[in-house]
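Retro notes
What went well: the complex prediction finally ran end to end.
Inputs used:
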Amino acid sequence: MTQTLRLGIAGLGTVGASVLRMVARRAEALTAATGRTITVTAVSARDRSRDRGVDLSGLHWFDDPVALARSGEIDVFVELVGGSEGAAKAAVEAALGAGKHVVTANKALLAHHGAALARMAEERGVALAYEASVAGGIPVIKAIREGLAGNDISRVYGILNGTCNYILSRMEAEGLTFEACLKDAQALGYAEADPTFDVEGFDTAHKLAILTSLAYGVEIDAEGVSVEGISAIQPLDLTMADELGYRIKLLGVAQATDEGIEQRVHPTMVPKASAIAQVMGVTNAVTVDADAVGELTLIGPGAGGAATASAVVADIADVALGLVRPTFGQPVARLTAPRRVEMQRHEGGYYIRLTVHDRTGVAAGVATRMAEANISIESIVQRRSAKAASSDPQGLSGQPVPLVLITYAATEGNVREALAAIGRDGLLAEAPQLIRIERE
Amino acid sequence: MTQTLRLGIAGLGTVGASVLRMVARRAEALTAATGRTITVTAVSARDRSRDRGVDLSGLHWFDDPVALARSGEIDVFVELVGGSEGAAKAAVEAALGAGKHVVTANKALLAHHGAALARMAEERGVALAYEASVAGGIPVIKAIREGLAGNDISRVYGILNGTCNYILSRMEAEGLTFEACLKDAQALGYAEADPTFDVEGFDTAHKLAILTSLAYGVEIDAEGVSVEGISAIQPLDLTMADELGYRIKLLGVAQATDEGIEQRVHPTMVPKASAIAQVMGVTNAVTVDADAVGELTLIGPGAGGAATASAVVADIADVALGLVRPTFGQPVARLTAPRRVEMQRHEGGYYIRLTVHDRTGVAAGVATRMAEANISIESIVQRRSAKAASSDPQGLSGQPVPLVLITYAATEGNVREALAAIGRDGLLAEAPQLIRIERE
């Protein structure tokens, strides 16, 4: 290797431009930390004429990222193209095949092809670094892989998608609907025109799958993640959560159980006093439960050009030190296939909001079905509107009213069974809302 | 180097015993992560006969830690003796002098001799690792030195002493006095028989000095830290903080200003909704403000055998990978002497609790003196006891009553000047209480 570490950056959006600026601005400090001069020598992007606010003169321009990846002019290929297939995948494979280190922010690529790419990196003795792929500027990959090397991890969970957390924070603070907050998020650039990937939880699932592999030494299994998004959350759920001492967050949770490893993404009630409940707006957070440290929480920016670039540059600095760690904390051959656990087997507390016909005996009917399914109720809240209470003091009209239950630990299968029975009994005016509770 | 990494552990208290157990229990995972077998070959402690609940058979016992440090049987010297001088210092110097890597949990040693020891490590090309010295099991050294390598850091602050946070948490939750909570902390083993080092802020100052060096690339300057402990905090301060939307935490704060680097340890009002305000009991937390990531917060266990051992083993794993980073993030020769900033120059918000004679015009007198010193008041709360209000409705008795002010940003010099003037006016029945406010 030469004394200078030469970078080739593919993808010059906000993150790529930030990396260019950061490497230049922090040049002296990075050399002091790593003993090497770090410099960008070549770049690739779709549109050569676009003004990105950075000086590209003196850099070799490649129209084709694969050609950049293979180029003899670079030591490290920085992949900021995005997407699990196509150019990003071809270029990363080309770079690893040519014995270049790879630094990437691409969670989709890793979630779908992580093990295969890690194997390539291992065969060539190069680094495949991806700190930026999960939770943006939070050094969570480093914390789990290196900082907790002495620990057995039992659970990892976190707020991994800023768009969802922004929407839920605003819904809670201002009593707005999901649709209204999504529109604002789109106007502010926090959400895409097609927001499905974010709001339905798939982005969180990709990130969670990466964390799971690292935390448990298993092959990435993005398809094994049970995924539920936030589009069905209603303002009433946030109000009820508040009254009951919770906030609602979209969490990704990986949890070791006797049956295997649960991987699940869903709106979650978290106790208001927990650290993760304080995380508002586009901020991300990850909590790790581990045998030696107990609980470790990291909170920081989950997205944004500068924050993501911070993670990319941290990886580059590690590469500059000549450090090649096993991609997922251990050699690929040691990674085991994860035992999936069906959500039906998940055991935890549940928030259940039913919309029942306001008639005598409904609460008793619901409670009976829950008891039959072996579910213990921690609290039950029946709320009639002031209007209904005055116009129909006896509750004879059968108007739809909310009935909220908080359960003690129960299996998801039993909860679904009880709800089906309640439905068959004709007690429900609408489909029930089910939100899992995650305790510290 | 041999394929096996041989450890010598000096100090077999709860941390040392935990390290022994962890290295054995995680042997396979550590080998997978580092490519090397990691094993403890020799130990040293004061009392050979004590039962530590770990098997020491097969380990070479040294009565003298310095002899262990120099021994040809070890590659890494793990220093868990403690203390800034004496055996710990002699042994670490001996180990570095003999070209051994050193892993230590000793914040006092680093705070007082960090630069000299780092220079020795650098000359020999060995690692001097100290993750366990600050914030126990939280990988904060790694996060700052490696995870934020691309960032310019403007402020680092945190709850770095579990004893103080435990005492303040209990005072707040139960309305108890400092003395009562200290006694409980001592009974639970959270505080020493002589608690001065913890409760007066010196322990926090040592840890802060280490973080400052790392964050700003300056030589450690433990003597430059302005230190104030928590022994003067009264239950009334916690009540008032609560009413005003704050909690009181003992923070260590390092802040870059135009004049240099402020290093200060003091009881601090933090907004109740901030992440750091949620940190209760013996838990620690560190927040870093940096240009690219904005704000990054890490929360976790600050002490305890297993948590501290977790940090020690993480350092050992890094050493096993053959990784030698500059101790404070860059070569010692590049560390600059920090420009100290006097506390008088500190600018921020203040909580000021005066005990004034309950007479007409006192509040006006106080407000006038504040205005004369160019201090703007954000809020003012005068609270008369119910008893005083009924027995003396006109406030003619001149009974001592609390008068609490929250200021906008002001310099400490001006605040002290105003308080002196108020004292000279004869308005005060007791010495004033002054608590700095730290905003996110």
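What we learned: Chain A has three domains: 4-133, 148-301, 344-437.
What to try next: split runs per interface for comparison.
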